[in-house]
Specification:
Helix content: 40-55%
Number of strands: 15
Structural class: alpha/beta
Radius of gyration: 25 Å
Shape: elongated
Strand order of the largest sheet: 1-6-5-2-3-4
Oligomer: single chain
Largest sheet: 6 strands, mixed
Strand content: 15-25%
Length: 411
């Protein structure tokens, strides 16, 4: 079984431009690349899906290239966008590129190129002669990424994005033996433009091909990788490893097998065994716990994943007093939260946090000894929650019953 057979088993492959050329690609094991947009300083779990796909090919013997769009990032990819992207300042893009480069290097061994280097010495006339002449305007107008924007309007800059990404592929094909470009399903138009350029320059007997991967969506149809509080980033200073772990543990039974297949290196056979065991006792969340452990391990390391696993278990068992303050805050960061800047009555806090729907319900909870703050049982309905009794002047936590936690952040 080839790596591409495995990718099909994992339901990763969306489309391949040329199955016949794929046979030669497998036989010769040349280079393959994927592009990364420097619109932010960190990738998120949605981006990680593409990255892990090319990493699978690297483990199978294909040389991986990651192209960071220092040039294309100055313009913005119109793919999937209904309006013009906001133009980022040059210093922001430069910082994003530096951060992404370090992040990618920490994840796996690959060649990293910046497509700004392809264009920095090229003037506009040279670009129009060497690149613009290769593609007909009518060809571009048929692209969904452009056609979908014609009614609302598209700038010449974003209209030209397709040419630049296509030329990236041509450049890598000629100079780095890159035969294949991988991208999300929305990148089909950009990938095929590159193949068209390669055909114009190198002839019909070229080896270039493209592979798109299925959009990774949740059961409700939304894109995977975002929580209610925003995207789950790979940078631990933005999204803590525990927040990532808890996000993954909370994935639904309907989604967990798909995510194990797409985002981990656990074998297909073992995933089937994990799911069989999981289905016998879904309430134990065995599959979700394995998903969370594997992804956090691959991104942040074995020790961090083990620590997240331990924190999660202690939180579930109500043994949080044994956690350090930093670990406790991480553990509570994925729970419902509010921010306070002044002393507030306990009943108002409970309603604002969503612990209960009304003050009368809140009063009943307090009087029935069901509410504690920072481990202290609260019995007085006139009790005020204040910063003086917080943990490290930073946060307080409310516990309802045995296992329901809520977080208060203090300004």
């Amino acid at each position: 079984m080839t790596i591409f057979d495995e990718l099909k088993q994992r339901n990763v492959i969306n489309n391949i431009t040329n199955e016949k050329k794929l046979e030669e690609f497998i036989k010769n094991k040349p280079s393959v690349y994927v592009g990364v947009d420097p619109s932010f300083k960190s990738m998120h779990l949605g981006n990680y899906y593409t990255l892990i796909t090319i990493n699978r090919l690297a483990k199978a013997g294909f040389k991986p290239y990651i192209l960071i769009g220092g040039a294309t990032g100055l313009i913005g990819d119109p793919s999937g966008k209904k309006a013009e992207r906001k133009v980022l300042p040059l210093d922001v893009i430069k910082n994003n590129i530096e951060c992404l480069t370090n992040q990618i290097k920490s994840l796996f061994d690959c060649e990293i190129v910046n497509n700004y280097d392809f264009y920095k010495d090229m003037n506009i006339l040279q670009f129009l002669r060497d690149v613009g002449k290769l593609i007909n305007v009518n060809y571009l107008l048929e692209k969904e990424i452009i056609k979908g924007r014609l009614e609302s309007g598209i700038s010449y800059a974003e209209f030209s994005y397709n040419l630049i990404q296509g030329y990236d592929f041509l450049n890598l094909y000629k100079n780095h033996n890159v035969w294949m470009q991988i991208g999300g399903s929305d990148q089909w138009g950009n990938i095929t433009t590159g193949i068209q350029m390669i055909r114009k320059v190198c002839g019909d007997d070229n080896n270039a091909l493209g592979l798109t991967i299925n959009l990774l969506t949740k059961e409700d149809g939304t894109k995977f990788g975002k929580s209610e509080k925003g995207a789950i980033y790979l940078d631990s200073s933005i999204t803590s490893p525990y927040q990532m772990y808890q996000f993954l543990v909370n994935q639904t039974d309907a989604d967990v097998k798909k995510l194990l297949l797409a985002l981990t290196f656990v074998s297909v056979d073992e995933i089937n065994s994990i799911m069989n065991a999981h289905n016998e006792a879904p309430f134990k969340k065995a599959a979700q716990k394995r998903l969370a452990f594997e992804i956090v391990k691959d991104i942040h390391g074995q020790d961090v994943a083990t620590k997240c696993e331990e924190i999660s278990a202690k939180l579930f068992l109500g043994e949080i007093t044994s956690l350090s303050h930093n670990d406790l805050y991480d553990a509570l960061s994925s729970t419902p939260s509010i921010t306070l800047n002044k002393s507030t009555n306990i009943l108002d806090v409970l309603v604002e946090l969503g612990v209960c729907p009304s003050k009368s319900n809140a009063r009943t909870l307090v009087q029935s000894k069901s509410i504690s703050i920072n481990g202290q049982l609260i019995e007085d309905i006139n009790f005020n929650v204040d910063k003086e009794n917080s943990i490290d002047n930073k946060f307080s936590y409310i516990k309802k019953g045995k296992k329901n936690y809520f977080l208060i952040n203090w300004n």
